[in-house]
Amino acid sequence: MRNLLRLALALPIATLAVLLNAAPAQAHAFGARYDLPLPLDLYLAGAGAAVALSFVILALVFRSPPSRDWRLGIDLLRFRPSGVLLEPAVIAIFQTISVGFLLLVLAAGFFGAQDTLKNIAPTFIWVIWWIGLAYVAALAGNVWPVINPWSIVFAGLEKAVRLLTARDRLDLGLSYPSWLGVWPAVALFGLFAWFELIIETSNVPNTLAMAILIYSGITWLGMASFGREVWLAHGEAFSLVFAILGRFAPIDRPERDPSDGGPSHWYLRPYAGGLITEKPFRLSMMVFVLLMLSTVAFDGFKETPLHASLLEWIASEPLFYPILLKLHELGFDLIATFDTVMLALSPILFLLIYLGFSWLAKEVPDSKLPVTEIAGLFVLSLVPIAIAYHLAHYLSYLLIAGQLIIPLASDPFGIGWDLFGTAGYSIDIGIIGAKFMWYTAVIAIVVGHVFAVGVAHFIALRVFESPSAALRSQYPFLILMVAYTMVSLWILSQPIVGGPNLGSLRTPSDTVILAPYEFQELCFEITAQDEVQYDFRSDQPIEFDIHYHDGLRIQFPVKLTGVSAHSGRFVSEEAKSYCLMWLNKNLAETSLTYRVTGL
Amino acid sequence: MLRSKQIVIRTGDYRGRDIFTGVKRPMCTYRRTCFFWFATRLLLPATLIRSAVAQESSKRVIEVRIENRKVVAPNEAIRITLGAVIELRWTSDEAVKLHLHGYDIELHVRPDEPAAMVVEAYATGRFPVTSHGWEDGGHGHDALTYLEVYPD
Q1: What are phi and psi of A338, to 5 degrees?
Q2: CATH numeric code, B53-150
């Protein structure tokens, strides 16, 4: 047990250290998206429709809050196809398959070909599971509690322990501290988003499998300490993610985990019915929801030209130069560092904006409710906008990159198998047209916005003292939602660009050994009034100059002798070709390390 | 700011992250996958889906010029409509191996010697053209330009 604990603690730290040095990602975790930007007229039409429909909803004054029970009273277990699907024996088959997939992905990741496209692990995890299951959870129902492989394995072990030994439970039964809330899940989801969006190697099968193994270890450790149910509710990030998405879905999640035996009930309800909260969320849960929303937004923002020019501006701003140089010296990848900072700041920004609007929602109707309670009550009303944006953003990705699973199913390890005869399938990039994509995206976002406004309005009717106070509380939230919807549409209207072209961050740097009287020269063309920064150090004092050729003469704007370390900046007077030169006039060889920035 | 050609900037290996290799045949090739192909087309309204077969039209020639490892002409993305058949005629002041993603066409361009790739625009989208290697081994996957195929 102690060894297990030590291993579980050591592994994340070790990989964190490895991953910190990894190169940055250019786009989403894996694969390329070829989406055309949303045309301006559609963008404006979508935005206009969102604003107009918001007022239509507010104009339809609901006098009384809707009934507390959103279920339509249709128990899916009573019907043939769904009833059979939810039989314990059938569910046991699904659960076995799910655990089988976890093992397959781990095996493929560790032992299969290490080519992203030839190994089933990246496609299965990033496209089928992460994007695909989110679609299922939001549009059909949250199936994750049933097929969560970590939960299934732990429950199976628990059952075995109960049968074989006198012990009643497998976990240590530690009591979960109440102040901890869902903070463990917040931390784990933050790490996951960082891994997905910023770490380039997250699509390398080996790294991915290692990350899954570490996450499995953490999850089982949490379950072993506090009990399975407790950890699923507070620490297993994906249970929380899919549960939040599943609140939008028309199928209510089961009352009890069917793996515990006994019939569970699956009810139908209207879309978004589950988002109408009864009790305010605690701060940690609220932060979790906002973290989900902000990472989804950051994912889109990362591919916009604005993001690229923001990074280029930071890179060219002399103010930041010393910090950048220091970070570069310490071995940080600058783009990844920027993106990490931005990813970390985005939920804080979301939280501040959201709390600000919550405060307005309290002040405008002059409610007695504390701001934290209002914020905790309404946070889920933003979820439909995020879901709509997510669906719009990933539809073509799911349909195009998702096709990769067809050849990979036949050859999951990338070792030349052809199990189903599909190994040679080549994917069709024309499977959906841009027009279909655009209309789907705009309709999804407008519908999502309408759901969000509706959900907030229903919550307000329940919470506030009078319908008129409820209505007044909605004006601030309406502004927030329109803004959020506009941002979503704006991201979709931006052309997808690869990584920023960080000219200034590309620093020619090298360490060379100079033999006696050997020189090293670095020449470049720059325009007038351009600035180049340089620094170097060497074992022994050497000669350094910056020169240019003026006809047959050589001019030396900078000339130093006998320096062993120097840093400086050079501003060109006119556009021409300049050279930096180092010359070793010693009798012994010397090592020279230089770096030039600004080219 | 002009970036000097003499400075060799080496970036990391191309990791194959721009994924869609082997997209030569747009149609289904195997019986099992044909089911998938047809199923997706039956589910979506036919008017919104373009046939994978490019329409007959006269071939348009678009000249693209690379200087100093940058596309200098045309200035913006290359825009065409679905169904068009175009010839991208590349000239470069440095030998380069180009890759049009999505359509997955590779082309080796020698210095100051035009080389052409023919694109039958059967799928809409915004497809990057990247270099898969310069003369001196310099290697980058920043997009040189984009080919944008719009619906008609």
Answers
A1: -55, -50
A2: 2.60.40.420
Chain B hits for A433, Cβ within 8 Å: 48-50, 82, 123-124, 151
Q: In chain A, pLDDT over 70 holds for what percent of residues?
A: 87
- Residue A420 has its nearest CB partner, among B5, B17, B32, at B32
Q: Which of A183, A180, A292 is nearest to A244 (CA)?
A: A292
Q: Which residues on B lie below 8 Å from A420 (Cβ)?
A: 32
- A317 Cβ contact partners less than 8 Å away, ≥ 6 residues apart: none
Beta partners for A267? A75
DSSP string covering A43-79: HHHHHHHHHHHHHHHHHS---SPPPS----S-BGGGS
Q: How many CA atoms lie within 13 A of B92 on its CB side?
A: 24
| Residue B113: burial class (beta carbons within 10 Å; 0-12, 13-18, 19+) | exposed
Find which of A28, A34, A432, A579 to mutate to test the B interface (most B CBs within 10 Å of its CB): A34
- The Cα A110–Cα A102 span in angstroms is 12
Nearest CB among A436, A498, A499 relative to B49 is that of A436
The stretch B16-42 carries a mean pLDDT of 44
Mean pLDDT score, A355-378: 92
Is some CB atom of chain B closer than 8 A to the CB atom of A525? Answer: yes
pLDDT tens for B79-135 read 999 989 999 999 998 899 998 988 889 999 999 889 999 999 999 999 999 888 777
Could you tell me the pLDDT band of residue A69, with boundaries at 50, 70 and 90?
low
Report which of B45, B81, B32, B38 is spatially closest to residue B60, judged by C-alpha positions.
B81
Is any Cβ of chain B less than 8 angstroms from the Cβ of A509?
no
Could A439 and B49 be called an inter-chain contact, meaning their C-beta atoms sit closer than 8 Å? no
Cβ(A504)–Cβ(A598) under 8 Å? Answer: yes
A385 within 8 A of A488, measured Cβ to Cβ: yes
The DSSP output letter for A414 is S
The residue among A455, A481, A415 whose CA lies nearest residue A108 is A415
A6 touches chain B (CB under 8 A): no
Using CA atoms, how far apart are residues A357 and A79, in angstroms rounded to an integer?
A: 45
| Residue A259, CA atoms < 13 Å, CB-side half-sphere | 24
Residue A160, C-beta contacts closer than 8 angstroms, at least 6 positions apart: none
Domains in chain B: boundaries = 23-52, 53-150
Q: What is the DSSP string of B25-77?
A: --S--SHHHHHHHHHHHHHS-GGGS--SSPPP-PPEEEEEEEETTEEEESSS-
Q: How far is CA A435 from CA A39, A42, A123, A386, in A?
A: 10, 10, 26, 22
Compute the distance between CA of residue A34 and CA of residue B124 in angstroms, rounded to an integer.
8
Listed range (A62-71, A361-370, A561-570, B14-23) with the worst mean pLDDT: B14-23
Subunit contact B32:A422, Cβ cutoff 8 A? yes
Task: Spell out the domains of chain A, with CATH numbers in brackets.
Answer: 1-22+77-255 (no CATH), 31-70+270-505 (no CATH), 507-597 (2.60.120.680)
Q: What angle do CA A422, A424, A428 make, to 5 degrees?
A: 90
Query: Residue holding tokens 């560790």?
Result: A110
For the record, the structure tokens of A298 come out as 């950051």
Q: Which of B97, B95, B89, B94 is nearest to B73 (CA)?
A: B89
**Burial of A200 from C-beta contacts in 10 A (0-12 / 13-18 / 19+):** buried
pLDDT band per the 50, 70, 90 thresholds, residue B5: very low
Where residue A263 falls (left for φ over 0; alpha for ψ -120 to 50; beta otherwise) is beta
